[in-house]
Write a structure and sequence with these properties.
By secondary structure, the chain is α+β, with helices and mostly antiparallel strands. It is built from 13 helices and 8 strands. The structure holds iron/sulfur cluster.
Length: about 325
């Protein structure tokens, strides 16, 4: 048996015994469900998606058409807490495009070709490959972070280039059973070939892995310093209600939030600080409260009303700090 046959065979046997076959998006042919799971899982752990987001989202938006028909606010509300809201906005936008394109009398559906999938908002190269492999059983590889790490270790690559990894992935994919092969690769990466302390002794690829002696050497980590951004946040009150605006910029677009100001008003009182780590920067907000004599904002809400709005994690922390300051 050559190495490739051995890899396919031992991966398939391992998956039959150890794979996370019960995951709901692995037990459906519904391309919309698979697409949704891929988008949710891009930046979020399986457990979080499974416990809190996947089913409630599908319950509220059971079809592409239902998602397209819903207002963005409702979509963001169901996404609240998952973060990276651009994912939800692109999902919504893509659903609207698919619905516009549907032919009369049919339900909107995803295209099966990778080239067509990539044209949709929010679907990158890997997501397109995952949808093609899982929903349409195309013989193509997926390439999420876990798979990249396995490929680097299997081939002892310290500084991988995307193009080379895709070539290796295409050469290695099991064309007879891309579904099991890809799911198994992701599971091996998530459970055995972990970034730290991989469990090589239990790995079905151990005998052909060139990196097993020093697995953590592959790939080399790029050192990244994350800048800190400072903001002054004003919690403005009128008649015990809090002023919030709906964000218009690209970042957090559509979510409701407290206003950031260049310079806090002299009469404002500082109540504390909240921090939040984003992928590319850390945000540190000094929070102030200010009681207005006349209403100068368009929208005011009670804390209970705010809980029904789609707001970011940072604004949630700010609201919590404000409520805490009221109790103090
Ligand atoms: S043998 Fe170790 S390093 Fe190689 S793929 Fe398996 S877990 Fe990863």
């Amino acid at each position: 048996m050559n190495d490739l046959c051995f890899i396919h065979d031992s991966i398939a046997r391992w998956y039959a015994k150890e794979g996370r076959k019960e995951l709901p998006w692995r037990n459906t042919d519904n391309a919309y469900h698979i697409w949704l799971s891929e988008v949710m899982l891009q930046q979020t752990q399986v457990k979080t998606v499974l416990d809190r987001y996947y089913f409630p989202f599908l319950e509220r938006f059971p079809t592409i058409e239902a998602l397209a028909d819903a207002p963005l606010d409702a979509v963001l509300k169901r996404w609240e807490g998952l973060g990276y809201y651009t994912r939800a906005k692109n999902l919504h936008k893509a659903a609207m495009l698919l619905t516009q394109r549907q032919t009369r009398g049919t339900s909107p559906t995803l295209p099966s070709s990778i080239d067509e999938l990539i044209k949709l908002p929010g679907i990158g190269k890997n997501t397109a490959h995952a949808i093609a492999a899982f929903a349409f059983k195309k013989p193509v590889p997926v390439m999420e972070a876990n798979v990249k790490r396995i490929l680097c270790r299997l081939h002892a690559i310290e500084e991988p280039k995307d193009k080379n990894l895709w070539e290796l992935a295409y050469a290695q994919v099991d064309r007879n059973d891309p579904f099991v092969y890809n799911q198994a690769m992701m599971d091996i990466g998530a459970t055995l070939c972990t970034p730290k302390n991989p469990l090589c002794d239990a790995c079905p690829l151990e005998s052909v892995c060139r990196g097993k002696g020093e697995p953590e050497r592959y790939p080399q980590k790029k050192r990244r310093t994350v800048p800190t951004r400072e903001q002054h946040i004003m919690v403005t009150l009128y008649n015990d209600k809090l002023a919030l605006s709906q964000r218009r910029g690209r970042f957090l677009h559509g979510l409701w939030g407290f206003d950031a100001v260049e310079v806090p008003l002299c009469a404002a009182e500082e109540i504390g600080e909240v921090t939040h780590a984003y992928t590319h920067f850390k945000l540190r907000c000094k929070v102030y409260i200010y009681d207005e004599l006349e209403p100068a904002h368009d929208h005011y809400f009670t804390p209970e009303e705010i809980r029904k709005l789609a707001i970011s994690k940072v604004d949630e922390k700010i609201l919590k700090l404000y409520l805490h300051s009221c109790d103090a």
